[in-house]
Design goal:
Distance between the termini: 46 Å
Shape: extended
Mean pLDDT: 77
Order of helices and strands: EEHEEEHH
Helix content: 25-40%
Length: about 110
């Protein structure tokens, strides 16, 4: 190995890659995804002579690739890649006319 210096501002080594608890809830602060279209893509293309290939992350399901799971009390919500897939999942979880109206308003801000 090579010697290195670690600079950490927080009280726990790991930067964004750690968890913390607040009022009996556990939060994960780590990086969830690095992918194409970000400024980092330019750097990785330079460093790897454009040899780095990105892949979908997560678990393949009938509804798409689940890349994040949110647990609220006893319900688990598997978030999938792609805004169309996300919309379908939201509308299966929250299915009243009022829910659909709010989902459409929310997604209009994302598009």
């Amino acid at each position: 190995g090579k010697p290195c210096a670690v600079f950490e501002k927080g009280d726990q080594i790991g930067g964004g890659a750690h968890t913390f608890c607040d009022r009996n809830y556990e939060f994960e602060t780590g990086i969830h995804y690095i992918g194409k279209g970000h400024d980092l893509d330019k750097l990785t293309n330079f460093l790897t002579c454009s040899q780095l290939k990105y892949s979908d992350i997560g678990t393949e399901t009938d509804h798409g690739v689940v890349h994040d799971n949110i647990l609220i009390e006893d319900r688990e919500y598997g978030f999938v890649a792609g805004i169309e897939n996300f919309e379908k999942r939201l509308k299966t979880w929250f299915s009243t006319k009022e829910d659909e109206k709010r989902i459409n308003m929310f997604l209009a801000h994302l598009r």
